[in-house]
């Protein structure tokens, strides 16, 4: 697929038409900049490497609230790339995420009503609205820690009490290798 040379000069309306999947993922991946309770990781799937890199540069250079951006080091099984953006976890995050999404949708000529988001590894999709993000995503580090750290410790405690063997090392297979590549660990 031939992309306009504008990708090298800066993105313009419609340059990424049909290249970004209208499904945002929030906190599915670990933060590289800090702890997960302090940083929200937003990720997008992009159909090709060059547009993925262009989107990452667009986000990193165009928004002061983007702490870091990255592109998956390898292609996913479906041929897509993942673009990551890290944002400080705070009460302003839903508004900032929606501002970013509005601009990205301008690049794709898509409507916000076509977009959804998934939180963590939950398969449920939510309509992409500022209100839904604010209601579903923990916006304070303390709340994030309470919601997820305590539940992780609780599960471990139950496993130990039940004398269930605990193995925190992922097996090495094609699926886990795929995840390691997506997380930029390889």
Low-pLDDT runs: 1-9
Can you count the beta strands? Answer: 6
N-to-C span: 27 Å
Which strand order spans the largest sheet, edge to edge or round the barrel? 3-4-2-1-5-6
Shape: globular
Question: Rg, please?
Answer: 18 Å
Number of helices: 6
Strand content: 15-25%
Major sheet summary line:
6 strands, mixed
The structural domain count equals: 1
How confident is the prediction overall: mean pLDDT?
A: 81
Structural class: alpha+beta
**What is the succession of H and E elements?**
HEEHEEHEEHHH
Helical percent range? 25-40%
How is the topology of this model organized?
Elements (H helix, E strand, L loop, with lengths): L5 H4 L13 E4 L12 E8 L2 H14 L3 E6 L9 E8 L4 H16 L7 E4 L5 E3 L2 H7 L4 H21 L12 H9 L4
Parallel strand pairs: 1-5
Antiparallel strand pairs: 1-2, 2-4, 3-4, 5-6
Helix pairs in contact: 3-4
Structure in words:
This protein is α+β, with helices and mostly antiparallel strands and 186 residues long. The chain has one domain (6-182). Helices cover 38% and strands 18% of the residues. A six-stranded mixed sheet has the order 3-4-2-1-5-6, with helices on one face. A hairpin with a 5-residue loop joins strand 5 (116-119) and strand 6. The two termini are 27 Å apart.
């Amino acid at each position: 697929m031939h992309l306009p040379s504008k990708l090298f000069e800066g993105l313009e309306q419609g340059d990424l038409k049909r290249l970004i999947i209208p499904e945002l993922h929030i906190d599915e991946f670990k933060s590289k900049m800090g702890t997960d309770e302090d940083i929200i990781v937003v990720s997008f799937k992009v159909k090709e490497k060059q547009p993925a890199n262009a989107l990452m540069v667009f986000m990193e250079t165009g928004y002061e609230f983007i702490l870091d951006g990255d592109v998956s080091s390898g292609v996913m099984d479906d041929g897509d790339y993942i673009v990551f953006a890290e944002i400080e976890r705070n009460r302003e995050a839903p508004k900032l995420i929606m501002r970013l999404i509005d601009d990205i949708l301008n690049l794709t000529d898509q409507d916000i009503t076509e977009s959804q988001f998934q939180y963590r590894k939950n398969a449920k999709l939510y309509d992409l609205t500022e209100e839904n993000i604010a209601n579903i995503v923990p916006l304070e580090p303390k709340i994030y820690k309470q919601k997820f750290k305590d539940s992780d410790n609780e599960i471990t405690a139950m496993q130990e009490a039940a004398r269930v063997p605990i193995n925190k090392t992922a097996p090495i297979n094609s699926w886990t290798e795929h995840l390691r590549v997506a997380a930029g660990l390889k």
